[in-house]
Amino acid sequence: xxxxxxxxxxxxxxxxxxxxxxxxxxxxxxxxxxxxxxxxxxxxxxxxxxxxxxxxxxxxxxxxxxxxxxxxxxxxxxxxxxxxxxxxxxxxxxxxxxxxxxxxxxxxxxxxxxxxxxxxxxxxxxxxxxxxxxxxxxxxxxxxxxxxxxxxxxxxxxxxxxxxxxxxxxxxxxxxxxxxxxxxxxxxxxxxxxxxxxxxxxxxxxxxxxxxxxxxxxxxxxxxxxxxxxxxxxxxxxxxxxxxxxxxxxxxxxxxxxxxxxxxxxxxxxxxxxxxxxxxxxxxxxxxxxxxxxxxxxxxxxxxxxxxxxxxxxxxxxxxxxxxxxxxxxxxxxxxxxxxxxxxxxxxxxxxxxxxxxxxxxxxxxxxxxxxxxxxxxxxxxxxxxxxxxxxxxxxxxxxxxxxxxxxxxxxxxxxxxxxxxxxxxxxxxxxxxxxxxxxxxxxxxxxxxxxxxxxxxxxxxxxxxxxxxxxxx
Length: 474
Prior knowledge:
The protein is α/β, with parallel strands linked by helices. The chain has two domains: 2-246 and 456-470, Glycogen Phosphorylase B (Rossmann fold, 3-Layer(aba) Sandwich); 270-450, Rossmann fold (3-Layer(aba) Sandwich). The protein is built from 19 helices and 18 strands. It has helices at residues 18-31, 49-52, 90-93, 104-118, 138-147, 175-180, 198-205, 214-219, 223-226, 230-234, 270-283, 305-317, 330-342, 355-364, 380-386, 397-402, 421-435, 438-450, 456-470; strands at residues 2-6, 36-42, 56-65, 68-79, 82-88, 128-132, 157-162, 170-171, 191-192, 195-197, 208-211, 240-242, 292-299, 321-328, 347-351, 367-370, 390-394, 414-416. Helix 1 links the parallel strand 1 and strand 2 (36-42).
């Protein structure tokens, strides 16, 4: 099979979150199983010079953005055995940052149309186009409306992966004619609750819809999780499937990670204590064997930061230290700043995101707190376990699918069910109790490190989806 992954970001070229990690890892795992994979993303200004200097010019074309014709450059390069294509237009993509601009709708309308136009000029004709999140949601729509019956495009199947249903690409109806060029008789594909909803268009037209965990696939049929799209998703359950994301096990490898102070494995975990000691010193925390909880996240409401705020000082008074890394809403940044000022030897807060430091936190802390209100998949809890750190999570989405409570014989972390600070605190207290029993804790650490969160199993499930589509078994 030939699979083209269309995305707004991909590691190592451009990244703002977990989507980039997935698109940078999954194609490699699928290629390792004997299939051809390529990736296409925008050519952003943010791409590092050492990577952009290696790009090879393919061709320049024009792309229709409704009644306009816009320049489009096509570039490519090879990285880790995968061919990456880049869609160039400096007006749209030569900016500081990836998203959050007034004309994001127009930028990704252009990108989606350009991806399909590009296929005429490259030596890769995909059997499957796997699109990701709202920024690529118009690709299955445009394919269905304009390309499906064109010569050279016949037989292509489209898969749409929902990484976070909260972001949908909602705009006023004027964009249908002014930007998208969608005929009036096809407007119903995108019309939803009086708006143009790009995610809804993909749900209507893609041959298969996947989510990034099995639990998220059924959660988004519930209005609480679906952000308004449950009504359309309920009617499309026949093409909905959840597949748990993996992580890049080479990038996150405690046996070889150059960013950490000592290496260790499930067979020999002694190096983790050295990592903890070095991390405490680096972050200015008091030395000692008390439990340390790591928090590496965006400071936004759905990450459960309000639960942490409610009982934070109670946890500090239990003797717990905290290593916090992240940024987000000012109210949460100010809270963590205050806690660090109040408890300087027990609470370290680093605002922003420093990848190298995140590795040292994963390796150096004992527990990782992730009380998300919703979490489509979550990668941090898997990375934490890879480094022998026990996650404490709420049972939602991919957290439910990857973390088993240590109350059972095969536990690899600690879980709680409700969106309740005291419920979370109870899970923390159970974790601390187990931590104080070193024999029990070391067994938990080894079980966590032995979990397989590679892309191996997930790649098989994606291949199964693709083969079903190509064999018309759905």
